[in-house]
């Protein structure tokens, strides 16, 4: 679970639902330990439009100044779990470099199994570029 360390700044998680009905909202919200905007709150539509919220669930992180840190919080948590915090570009770059270093030491036979554990469907080192131009000529 994401919780700030003693040395970190405090943060707050607020659930902004895109559920279609109150029972759906209640079912999902009852599993969460954080705050939420009430189901159907008019601010939900404004926030979704302002932050261009796409996909369910969507995790957008904001800094203390209210500026967007990332709109890709969900992907970052899927990939790096709690290590993604505080979601900054510098942190993501560091985690990416660490993952690349770990991948260098894996035997080819381990790429796909390990990739699934890290949130990839295939490891980036396993995917070769595709020349779509030559494919279209066939």
Automatic annotation (TrEMBL):
GO MF, one example: protein-disulfide reductase [NAD(P)H] activity
Domain Thioredoxin-like fold, chain residue ranges per copy: 8-67
Catalysed reaction, written as an equation: [protein]-dithiol + NADP(+) = [protein]-disulfide + NADPH + H(+); [protein]-dithiol + NAD(+) = [protein]-disulfide + NADH + H(+)
InterPro entries: Nucleoredoxin-like, Thioredoxin-like_fold, Thioredoxin-like_sf
Pfam families in UniProt: Thioredoxin_8
Keywords in alphabetical order: NAD, Oxidoreductase, Repeat
Keyword field contains Protease: no
Name this protein carries in UniProt: protein-disulfide reductase
